[in-house]
Design a protein that fits this description.
The first copy, chain A, is an alpha+beta fold. The first copy, chain A, contains eight helices and nine strands. The structure holds a DNA duplex (30 and 30 nucleotides).
Amino acid sequence: MLSAQYDLSSSFPTAVHSSVAELAALDAVGTVLSLDRDAALFREGDRADHYFKVVSGVIRGCKLLSDGRRHVGDFFLPGEFVALNAPAIHAFTAEAIGGTTLVRYERRRVDALIAANPRLAISLFARLSAELSAIRARMLLLSRMTASERIATFLLDLAGRGGSGRRSVIPLPMTRTDIGDHLGLTTETVCREIAQLKRIGAIAASSPHELRVLRGDLLQRIADGI
Amino acid sequence: MLSAQYDLSSSFPTAVHSSVAELAALDAVGTVLSLDRDAALFREGDRADHYFKVVSGVIRGCKLLSDGRRHVGDFFLPGEFVALNAPAIHAFTAEAIGGTTLVRYERRRVDALIAANPRLAISLFARLSAELSAIRARMLLLSRMTASERIATFLLDLAGRGGSGRRSVIPLPMTRTDIGDHLGLTTETVCREIAQLKRIGAIAASSPHELRVLRGDLLQRIADGI
DNA sequence: CGTCCAGTTGATGTAAATCAAACCCAGTGG
DNA sequence: CCACTGGGTTTGATTTACATCAACTGGACG
C-alpha cells in the first residue's frame, strides 16, 4: 500500500512538530480521517468548515488555471496543519499524495477555543505572519530564481523541515510533476536539475523518492546563486 | 514636485479605503510622515515597531537577492496599510515611489488597541487571511502565466483597487522596471506587452504613467488566457 | 508477461531575456 | 531661449534558459 511506502511520520515526529504548543489542546477535539492517493481533502471554493493536521503521508495544496496549468503552493508534511488559517472559503484545493491520514477539527470548536484563549489567538497570529513571510520568499524564488537555484532551495527547505535541524536524507514522496508545479518548472527540467546535482556530487539518490545530501554547502551555494 | 504629479489620493479616497472600519480608531494615535522618492520606509530585517498607512504617493514592498535581482511583492496605494500584519522583524523593504506621505502608528499602541477590542482582532485576522489568499493567486501568476497574462492581470487588479468598482483610468506611478520586478519580467517585456495591448485597442495611454482601459472585456480575456 | 505510469534523456522550438540604440521629456545652466 | 544632460521609455536584433516534443527505461501490478 502506498501510504506505507510514503509514511514519513517516523522522520517527522508529530509531537515535536506541533510547533504551536498551545494547539495541543486541539487534539482533544479531533477525529481521524484517511484518504487514498489523489483524493481531495477539500477544493478551492469549498466552505472551510474544518481544519486538519497531517498524521502520515503528504498533502499538496494547489490552484488550477482553466486550461490545466497548475501551481502547487505547499506540501503539508506529517505534523503540519492544513488550512488552519483559511478564510471562510478555501483559496486552494488540497489533495493526498499517496495514502494519507489526518486529524480533522471542527472549525467552530477550534474558533471557540481560540476565542476563549488569548494566548492561542496570539500564537495563531504569529503563525499566520510567519506563513506570510515564507510565502513572500517563495515569490522571490518563483519570479527571479533560475531552475537550479529553485531546486537547490527546495531540497534545502525539505531537509530543514520537521524540526531537528537539517537532515541528510530527504524523502521526496511527491512526483516530479508535483515538484515542477511547486517551483514553476516542468517535470523534465526537475529531472535534469536533480541529475545535474547528482553529477556534481551534491546529492545521491537511493531511489527517485529518496535523496541523500552529500554536500550541503554546495547545495547552499547553488541555492544562493553563488 | 513628484509627489504632486503622482498624488493618487484624489482617485483613491482614503476614507472609503480604510476597509477595516474598526481601524478608524487607529487614526487617533497616528503621526504624519513624508518620504522623498526612493527613500526607505523600513528595510527587510528591521524591527517592526510601527505600522503605516499611505496617504498620498505609493510605497513598494520589495525583496532583494544578493546579486541585485529584485522582487516587488506589493504596491501600497493611498488608503492602504503597510506592514499591518508584519511579524516582529520586517520580511521586506518598503520604499517610496515618488514623494509619499504616510501616517505612522506605534505598534505597541495598536497592539494594545487590538488586545482591548476583540472585534478589531477578528477584522485583522480576516484581513491577514485575505492577504494570504491574494498572495497565493500571485504565486500562480508568477509560476504559470505568460507575460501578456501577467500584464493584463496586473492592469485589471490596479483598475479594481480603491473600492468604487473598476475605474477606466489607471495611474501607473511606478517605473516599468518596478512593474517588471512585480511580475517577474524585464522592463523591455513590460513595454512590449503594453505596446501590444495598445496596438489591439485594449488600452490607450495619455502618458507612460496613465493608461485608459478601452476594452475591459478584452483585457479580461487576455488575463484569463482565453 | 504485458501494461501502465513515473522517471529519465535527447533533440528541437520558443518566449522572454539580454544586448544595443534611439527617443522623449524634465530639469539645468549658459 | 535653447543646447545639454540624464533617467526612464521604447523598439529592434540576437541569445538563451527552459519548454516542448519524442523516445526509451524500469519498477509495480494484474
